[in-house]
Specification:
The complex is a heterodimer of chains A (302) and B (213).
Chain A: H1 2-17, H2 20-33, H3 42-52, H4 64-82, H5 97-118, H6 122-153, H7 158-161, H8 170-184, H9 203-206, H10 212-237, H11 245-269, H12 278-298
Helix pairs in contact in A: 2-11, 3-10, 4-5, 4-10, 5-6, 6-8, 6-12, 8-10, 8-12, 10-11
Chain B: H1 2-21, H2 25-46, H3 52-79, H4 92-112, H5 124-141, H6 145-163, H7 172-200
Classes of the chains: A mainly alpha (302), B mainly alpha (213).
């Protein structure tokens, strides 16, 4: 009974906190540019508005066009439930849950790309192609980072993998995972979430034909994914397991806020890279994680 | 102690990658400078008890590698009006992969070397070999003279890292001599770069193979 209540509480926390992050990022961007910017809670208003709207369907689209965003949302939220929250631990912790996390994220991506292809629009096919071709490199980096953590701690359970720091490779892992965070969430310098030119968009162009509740699911899923990667990055680098529960919670919240603000700063200070330079950056991120793995392997346990 | 040491060497290895992957000269120079500072701090970490001599070596290394040499290179760049793009012979992704293979090989080779017991748990030797290899790739794989100088300096960082193994038996004179050589070398290269620019209107080393009147 207690565990069900705990899971519901955790789910509510993830669902309610996630849309805050894009709001903070937009506020930071507005602040750097000297504007007032949209309110921090803007995404909540948007989601509420979208939920009331009706859905416009293409005559070409099969039911997968609606099912895609729904399945992707469920997969991302399921992945979020696996991630431990500091001292509270994981909601559903079991041996090998880290593999499930990676696969749930992959399922979410597959469903988004599938729904994009269902529209039959050339632009959306292009966006889907870009999304999955970048994913080849980001997934490799993410899996290498997880391997490094696993070698460092000697377990395959997220809960115990993330409670200690990642040892000598911590700095490399932080840099690599931050690049993965930016690429996975389609942020500058990999993609520009604000652009309105279909030729240069990636994630935004895939969801161009969605409307109403499915679009709300896509937007909310994207914010949950951003929060998920931010939490993962902070827990992978900081030794939260060594702090008292209260200090660990405070450190987690503060570091997630720092990551969010730095995403906003990166977005204000950098321009989006040309497409041919993106693989170079992603390869660098992958190799940084690979070096962290090497260091974890050779540098010994803390 | 080993934990901090490994962390710093790990950062230096990551900076090797950034130097291989960056496409602008100023960022290569900055990467090299940061690496110099990171490695300059290392003697203080290795030494358990504070020693004036070691502190002096660390201070001078940080000052020369982190500030003096980068400033000279930037000045040479500005006075010779060099474009900021790095032109590679070996593309960025291939050189990154080469650097990664080199680092993995360095870690593997270091495991087979007969080291002193106090050095076996550290990453000093793999880090040194990896930096030397990265320096080689940068020197061979880049067209412009300035980026080759950066490659040379990263190679020297690797040798310096190797020298830290012998920190107790190397006299201060040798360390300071190496630093002086390096400074003079970069100083001379700064002048040469200017001359090459005037004589050939470019710093492309491929053009230096043609004889002229």
């Amino acid at each position: 009974m207690i565990s069900i209540l705990q899971i519901i509480l955790r789910l509510t926390l993830w669902l309610l906190v996630a849309p805050l992050l894009p709001g903070i990022i937009n506020k930071v961007k507005a602040w750097v540019a000297g504007r007032q910017g949209p309110p921090v809670l803007q995404l909540y208003y948007d989601l509420a508005r979208l939920w009331k709207k009706s859905v416009v369907l293409s005559t070409l689209a099969s039911p997968a066009f609606i099912a895609g965003p729904a399945v992707a949302w469920v997969a991302v939220v399921g992945a979020a439930m696996l991630v431990p929250l500091g001292p509270a631990g994981g909601g559903l912790s079991f041996k090998g849950d880290v593999l499930l996390l990676v696969y749930l994220l992959a399922v979410a991506r597959f469903c988004t790309a599938w729904a994009a292809l269902e529209t039959g629009s050339a632009f959306e096919g292009m966006g889907a192609a870009r999304e999955v071709s970048y994913a080849v490199l980001t997934e490799a980096a993410l899996i290498t980072a997880i391997l490094a953590l696993s070698v460092q701690t000697g377990t395959v359970v997220l809960d115990s993998m993330l409670s200690l720091s990642s040892g000598p490779g911590a700095v490399l892992l932080a840099a690599g995972l931050f690049a993965v965070l930016l690429a996975e969430n389609c942020r500058v310098p990999f993609d520009d979430p604000n652009t309105h030119l279909e030729l240069t968009m990636i994630h935004e162009v895939m969801v161009l034909d969605h409307s109403g509740p499915p679009l709300a699911a896509v937007l909310h899923g994207a914010s949950v994914k951003l929060l998920l990667f931010a939490v993962l990055l902070c827990e992978a680098v900081l030794p939260l397991g060594r702090l008292t529960p209260f200090a660990a919670t405070a450190a987690l919240v503060a570091s997630v806020a720092v990551v969010t603000v730095s995403v906003g700063l990166v977005e204000s200070l950098l321009a989006r890279f040309a497409f041919r330079r993106v693989p170079l950056l992603l390869t660098t991120a992958f190799l940084l994680c690979l070096f962290a793995l090497l260091l974890a392997w050779k540098g010994g346990a803390p | 102690m080993n934990q901090t040491l490994n962390l710093l060497v790990g950062v230096a290895m990551g900076l090797n990658l950034l130097a291989l992957g960056s496409s602008r000269l100023p960022s290569v120079i900055r990467t090299m400078a940061v690496q110099g500072v990171v490695l300059g701090v290392l003697p203080l970490v290795i030494e358990q008890d504070f020693d004036w001599l070691v502190a002096l070596v660390a201070l001078v290394t940080v000052a020369v590698k982190g500030f003096v040499i980068p400033t000279m290179l930037r000045r040479a760049m500005r006075s010779a009006n060099i474009e900021r793009e790095v032109e590679p012979f070996i593309g960025f992704v291939p050189s990154l992969l080469l650097g990664a293979v080199g680092t993995i090989a360095a870690v593997a080779v270091a495991g087979a070397l007969p080291l002193l017991p106090e050095h076996t748990g550290t990453l000093l030797v793999p880090g040194a070999l990896a930096s030397v290899f990265t320096g080689f790739v940068l020197m061979v794989g880049r067209v412009k003279a300035i980026s080759q100088v950066c490659g040379y300096l990263i190679l020297e960082n690797g040798i310096y890292l190797f020298g830290l193994l012998l920190i107790h038996s190397t006299p201060l004179l040798v360390e300071s001599g190496i630093l002086l050589d390096l400074t003079v070398g970069v100083f001379v290269i700064g002048i040469i770069v200017d001359r090459i620019q005037r004589a050939f209107d470019s710093l492309d080393t491929r053009k230096l193979t043609v004889l002229r009147e």
